[in-house]
Design goal:
Helix content is 50%, strand content 3%. The protein has helices spanning 3-14, 26-35, 41-54, 58-62, 66-72, 80-95, 101-105, 112-121, 132-143, 154-163, 173-183, 203-207, 233-247, 256-259, 268-280; strands spanning 250-251, 284-287, 290-293. The chain is mainly alpha-helical and 297 residues long.
Length: 297
């Protein structure tokens, strides 16, 4: 039995039942992929089902305003993803649903991983989307690298192509790898329970406790932090958007204390800079010193 066959056998017994699995509906698959980029699966399920009630298909989302999608996305964070998703829906309605991985890549906002995921799950192309989880499992299993560098995927891509079965349910392999990474092949893996332990090139190192996990698996992105503030600007922009969403209309000069109890007059330029960025990015609009969610169609 091949490594992939062992994995698929385990997946049939232990794979998670998730609402976006078992469908080739590209819209639903894309919604799940975008939501899960920064959201745990358990929370993602709730938001996914709520989103589909409001926007069940490409057409309904394409007709939504900025304010519509920002309200529906509330609680998920990284709100730019919501506008990107809506813009993709508009492009699909204009040009038709992509029919290949390459076609998905041509849409603004769709990166290599998402295009590959859509090709695998919606089109059943023989392609393997590589994210953090799949990178970790396959580097360990195929290359014996316990903690891989995300910048060095060249060799992994070559071996991954050979790893995928040429027939059968090869499109289930990515889902199986996701579940294995979540349940067993975590940062500190439970190799004794892994269905791939006999073939995995790294399992012996872990079982003999010869490896120590690094404190930080992924380098943190550098974020702008205003002098004297506890959090990055990203957090305060999120608070501004949340406040405007809840208040519906609010004067700019009333925002400061609502987003930061320690706000003072010297912080006014900082606040206005963040508001200007939110307006520029299409989240807010200002009229006579008052803010509301952007009503752009």
């Amino acid at each position: 039995m091949t490594l992939a066959a062992h994995l698929l056998f385990w997946y049939r017994l232990h794979g998670r039942i998730l609402p976006w699995r078992g469908t080739q509906n590209a819209y639903r698959i894309l919604v799940s992929e975008i939501m899960l980029q920064q959201t745990q699966v358990s929370r993602g399920i709730l938001f996914y089902e709520k989103w589909l009630k409001e926007f069940p298909d490409w057409d309904s989302l394409a007709r939504a305003t900025n304010a519509d999608v920002i309200r529906a996305w509330a609680g998920l964070g990284y709100n730019r993803r919501a506008l990107m998703l809506r813009d993709v829906a508009r492009e699909v309605m204009r040009t038709g649903e992509p029919k290949s991985e390459a076609d998905w890549r041509r849409l603004k906002g769709i990166g290599p991983y998402t295009a590959a995921a859509l090709a695998a799950f919606a089109l059943h192309e023989r392609v393997l989307p590589i994210d953090t989880n799949i990178r970790r499992v396959l580097n360990r299993a195929l290359l014996g690298i316990p903690f891989p560098d995300p910048e060095k995927d060249e060799q992994l891509k070559i071996l991954a192509e050979r790893f995928l079965p040429k027939k059968g349910n090869y499109f289930d392999i990515p889902q199986a790898l996701f579940d294995l990474a979540t349940a067993i092949c975590t940062k500190t893996p439970d190799c004794s329970s892994c269905p791939l332990r006999n073939e995995c090139c790294a399992s012996e190192q872990f079982l003999q406790k010869k490896i120590q996990a690094p404190k930080q698996m992924i380098k943190k992105a550098a974020e702008k932090i205003h002098p004297g503030k506890k959090y990055p600007d990203r957090i305060y922009r999120g608070r501004i958007l949340k406040t405007v969403r809840e208040e519906q209309i609010i004067p700019v000069d009333k925002l400061g204390k609502k987003i930061d109890p320690s706000f003072k007059k010297t912080d006014i330029p900082w606040l206005k800079s963040m508001v200007s960025r939110l307006i520029r990015d299409g989240f807010l609009e200002e009229n006579k010193g008052k803010l509301r969610l952007s009503q752009t169609d």
